[in-house]
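Incident log, structure service

09:12 report received: a user says their structure output differs between two submissions of the same chain.
09:20 pulled the input from the user's history:
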Amino acid sequence: MLSLETFLKGQVNGPEFFEENYFTTGMLTLVDRVFRHLGGGGAGSSVFQLSQAMGGGKTHSMIALGLLARDPDLRSRVLAEKNPAPRLTRCRVVGFNGRNTDAPGGIWGSIAEQLGKAEQFARYVAPLLSAPGPEAWKQLLGGDPLVIFLDELPPYLEYAAAVPVGHGDLALVTTTALANLFVAVAEMDSACLVLSDLAGTNYRVGQSSLEAAFTRAVQGITSEAKRIAVPITPVNPNGDELYHILRKRLFERIAPEADIQNVASRYRDALREATRMNLTTTAPESLYTRILDSYPFHPDLRELVGKFKENEGFQQTRGVIRLMQMIITNLWKGQKATELDLIHPYDIDLNDDELASEIRTINPSLSEAIAHDIAHGGDAEVEQIDLANDTTDASDAARLMLVASLSTTPGAIHGLREFQLVDGLQRPGRDLSTFKANVLDKLATRAWYLHNSPDGRYYFKNQQNLAAKLRSTAQSLHSEVVDRMLKEHLEKDFSPSLRDCYQVARILPPLDEVQIEQDKTTLVIVRPGGQANRLPISSDWQDWWGQQQYKNRVLFLSGSRDTFQKVLDCARQARALQSIGDELRAENTPSDDPQWRALDSLEDRVNLQFSAALKEAFDQLVYPSINNALRTSGIELAFAGNQSGEATIRKTLENAQKFTTKIDDDSFRARAEARLFGSAETKVVLWSDFKRNAAVNTSWPLHKVSALDDLKADCLRRALWREEGNHVRRGPFPPPSPEVAIRELSTDEDGDGRTYLKIEPLHAEAVVYETGDADPTPASTPVPTPARFEATALRYRFLAHDPAQPERVSAVKEWTAKLRLKYQLHNRGDHYEVELSALPKAGGVTIRYTTDGSSPTPMLSATYSGPVRVPGGCRVVCAMAVASAYQLQSEVVRITIPQQGQEERTLDLAKPAQWLLKTKLDDPGQVWDFITRLESTSAVTAHDIGLTAESSDGLQSIDYSGALDSGYDGPTLRAVTEKLADIVQGGSLRMTVGGMRFATGQGLLDWLQVSKQSFDLSKVRQ
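09:34 re-ran on a clean worker, output below:
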């Protein structure tokens, strides 16, 4: 290593020095300013301070200037056209290195001796009691051009502070002498002074003394000379000079420009691919330009070195040169250099003792982090990750993080963000698409000394992180606890929610604990084990399945690869995280504590790793297939978002046509008939056997539990199947026989009492009829359709037939009218008169009555022929309509005759009452108003309802008639009406009400009052 003393003794070869060293901008500035001043060019300054941390190139700059000052010929060759003083001759050069603390004459004595004028400063040297003044300095320094070097003064001044001189110390005398020297040189045209500081070293006392000298010197000179020292930085820490220096010092030659451009292009393309995958946002073109400047070094080298260049004791330029020299030597010896396009910041072999020692010297506190996490002969965590991944990504990334963590300067920013790691790692041929999952996420759970800052920087620190606690906690867990954790995790992932593909999940069970049911499919998750046979489940499980009755009710999830240990390791970590969280809660750790954030981050990563391990381990689904055999399909589990294990199994089986959701089409019915009835010829099957066949037949697909019952209901509804007790018969069936459907629509109570019917032929084209007892034939009177049929006779007989197929005729369907009897009681003053009328008004109907209260039997009653005078003393007249030819009779009507002295009773207010007057509502407003009043009135029902909903264009019309024995209350009538209104929207709505029933007669009167209807006792039945 060159020193100022070596140069002053003439032991530095000038041409060789400039051949091996790069001329930095700072060095050129120094040379230019000094020679212009000494050559009379009016530089304006004669004192220069080289300001840079230790090892930053200050001594080299002095030696370069000294060599050029002493040798005008060398100066001309090296500077050529940049020589600022071509006429300047040889200069004198003297200097002092502050590490020479034993110099007998101190600084000024040493300078005087080198100038051959020791006797001139004899009185200031022996002893060192007084400092030379400015004039004494000028007399000493006068003569030919002179360059003075003062290098590394702080160590000397620190030493001088401990040497007593008179009432003070040598440091005070030296400081005064230096201040006077600065003043003297500042006023001289033939002398220049170059000194260096040692910022960042341990010589704080000496450095402060040097600064004090400057301060006193500035205060002691005129305003024209106040710029006493020009600060110059020998090496620009923010430019590309570091690359130039390294190339000059470490390489004889580098690749041609075309090769360099090719390397830069390939790195640019690699970064462009990373940008396309959203791994980084760095512009690829900027990397291209930076590589052209930094080759053969990766351009990130300068930024990473800049993070620790201010470390106390680190030689900024000299230290980097030494470190890179060691790296290059290691690459060359290990024959790695031939494989590299660039020298990267991560090309530091920390398993090399010399290199590892150098890195530990930069920051000794990270020694344990290096040994445990980064490099330890293949046993460090990142080395194990690389071994599993078969890459060097983890080691390279960790070394980048380490270099970015070496700074010991207070307030320094440590570490790199994810995109910065990608920028530093990406190179031609490297695939970083899985970098986060395969490296960062694994480092977060395995590296003990890796930390993550709030702004996302990864850095190493001499403090164990949560991952270290995770590892120790995980290793202490009992295997039973881990097994339970794994089962809970699998239970959550595979617990059936839709329950259509499978209904029961058994997690890693013993053989003898699994029971199969006929109507439930069981998923059995079996431990993967790399079985030798073609199925990923053991022969024990295959034998067990072969002994099951319901073979089509079992699924197996397993794997053929022996990766189950990864699953157990992840389960162990997941359970350990739970324990750590429980500890934090038990200790009442505040919610804003960084440990919670770190725990959340770890949980996310562990869960991702857990899912990845499960995906890798359980990659085969085994299910029953044709010929009573088991079949295997590959399965790719996905747990992202709301995706569950059940969903993935459903999809896999659906793709394999072992599971179906298409249970509503005829193809499903056709398959069921072909496979579950027993054989293609079987038409009848016991329903329990049908369902059992679905559980036994391995060619039958899986589906939701209710699918077969739903199929049965649908086939029965569509008349494709028929239910015969506990059996089911499948079609096709013979065509159904013709039938006649008769529905009573309404009756006319005010006219002739006729009944309106709706007559429809079923499974036939036409209907004919005869009245009375005559049998209808296809030649009988046809029933007009679709008009209402008006029944005025007492009996009709109907026949449905198909004119195109004369043999298809129905059985005769008979309809008989219901006889009703109406009466009126007239008060004639001295007697009462009863008037009777039978409905319908058809031939063959007679009315019989009695006046003694007895039942009007044929033997003990009179035949009504006109109004009957009620005999005196008669209390009740009983009457009944009879049609003997058809054996029809009406209900007996009891007519109470008021007695003399009693008021005529009109209505019993406490007894139930039936209102027989028909109500007709012809617009929607009336209909809804009626329904609303019916809902608000208790114990009232409407009977014989008729509803019509018709669209405004007349193209849609729906009729509804209801004759429930219990009648319609308000909510029931509203539900029916709303359904019709929903079907035919925006049209008209009409309703007829044949009668109403009230709990009391008072309720009837209240209803009539609200609806503004007149009371008519003849329309009331009690």
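09:41 both user submissions now match this output. Likely a transient worker issue. Closing.
09:42 reviewer note: The first helix runs from residue 4 to 8. Residues 200-207, 213-227 have pLDDT under 50 and may be disordered.
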